[in-house]
């Protein structure tokens, strides 16, 4: 897999489409919420420095995330995801399922 496009659950509830409303939420804690929801880990080194745990998805696997920019925490998440640093990847944010005008 070259990269993933993740769509949801960060949608305006009135614009959720076919997505179950029980799973729609805001990224209220910014990047921390994104990581919690998607079960993301940074590279987890095992006991031996040569062994790396790739069993959980990593932020580096994501290319695009679709979210509603007006949600609480969406701006903070967007900044963290789009401004690469030593620990984050430059992810494309696609605005979707939004009530923004």
Give an overview in words.
The chain is an alpha/beta fold. It has 2 helices and 5 strands, in the order E-H-E-E-E-H-E. Strands 1-4-5 form a 3-stranded parallel beta sheet, with helices on one face. Strands 2-3 form a two-stranded antiparallel ribbon.
Descriptors:
alpha/beta, 2 helices, 17% helix, single chain, 101 residues, two-stranded antiparallel ribbon, three-stranded parallel sheet
Mean pLDDT: 83
Q: What is the number of beta strands?
A: 5
Number of helices: 2
What is the string of helix and strand elements? EHEEEHE
Strand order of the largest sheet: 1-4-5
Low-confidence stretches: none
Backbone structural class: alpha/beta
* Radius of gyration, whole Å: 15 Å
- Profile the largest sheet: 3 strands, parallel
Outline the secondary-structure elements:
Elements (H helix, E strand, L loop, with lengths): L3 E4 L23 H8 L5 E2 L6 E2 L8 E6 L6 H9 L9 E4 L6
Parallel strand pairs: 1-4, 4-5
Antiparallel strand pairs: 2-3
Helix pairs in contact: 1-2
What's a quick, concise take on this entry?
The chain has 101 residues and is of the alpha/beta class.
């Amino acid at each position: 897999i070259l990269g993933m496009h993740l769509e949801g659950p960060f949608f305006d509830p009135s614009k959720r489409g076919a997505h179950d409303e029980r799973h729609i939420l805001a990224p209220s804690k910014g990047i921390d919420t994104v990581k919690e929801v998607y079960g993301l880990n940074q590279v987890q080194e095992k006991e031996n420095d040569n062994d790396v745990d790739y069993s959980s998805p990593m932020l580096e696997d994501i290319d695009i995330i679709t979210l509603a920019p007006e949600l609480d925490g969406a701006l903070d998440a967007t900044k963290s995801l789009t401004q690469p640093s030593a620990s984050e990847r430059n992810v494309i944010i696609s605005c979707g399922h939004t009530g923004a005008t």
